[in-house]
Automatic annotation (TrEMBL):
This is DUF2490 domain-containing protein. The keyword Signal applies. Keywords: Signal. Residues 1-25 form the signal peptide. It comes from the Bacteria.
Amino acid sequence: MVNPTRFTALLAFAIPLLVPNRAAAQIGAEAQGGKLTTWVAFGLDKELSAHWTSVTDIGFGRHSDPTGDLNPVKRQGLFVLTQDFIYQLAPHWRTAVSVGYWRRNSYLEEAPYEASQPNTYRNELRPFQKLYYDAKFGKVLFTNTLRADYRFYFTSDFGRWPTPFEFRAREMVNGKIPLDSQGRHWLILNDEILTAADDYSTATAEKTGHRWSPYKLTENRASVFYRRSFPEHKLDWDIGLMYQYWRETQQPAFNVSYNLMMDFIIK
């Protein structure tokens, strides 16, 4: 008999192959924890041929404590490195195969919040895929992006993390609004919905009585960016704010974080 949770996850993986979308250019913040976070990223977009584009991103994040302190650079949060190879299928369609590495520091949920030993941080290797669709409504550039993540978690020394694998499906709607006729100033609006299910370790599965966590909504990310483009230097500079409504798959309650974001993209 097919495990219904596993079937739902596989169905969510199949949907991105059937529904239109396209990637947004700015490098949005990653989830970190804490009430107030900062995110700085650098990107290199390079056309390899008429159909292929390479996109390399590197990002750094810091954050405040989960409660109380709102210092957005108090604690080390994330280091992220990703590589996308994007293929132009048709004038409005693109697809991508991608891989990334995440290093996320671990902290306790209550004061003094210091990292638990020996796993002060978690390693993550993540292959993922995307399918993109573009459209233009008047002067507004619209992009719908569907993405499937395969998240493999490891301890600091690359041993097995208590939750060794997570499948996550996500959809993002993106709109770019020009603020001038030269294409130098832009307002960018994003909203992304994320759903996930965890494949438990043997010990966790025996404890819970389930091999998989419930497949559920885990996050919503709403962002606004201002972009300053410098065509003569082939450079985009983005600054923005994200409202993040999120939870871990094993938790019933949602948390709220605010992310201050900035990125630089060389094209």
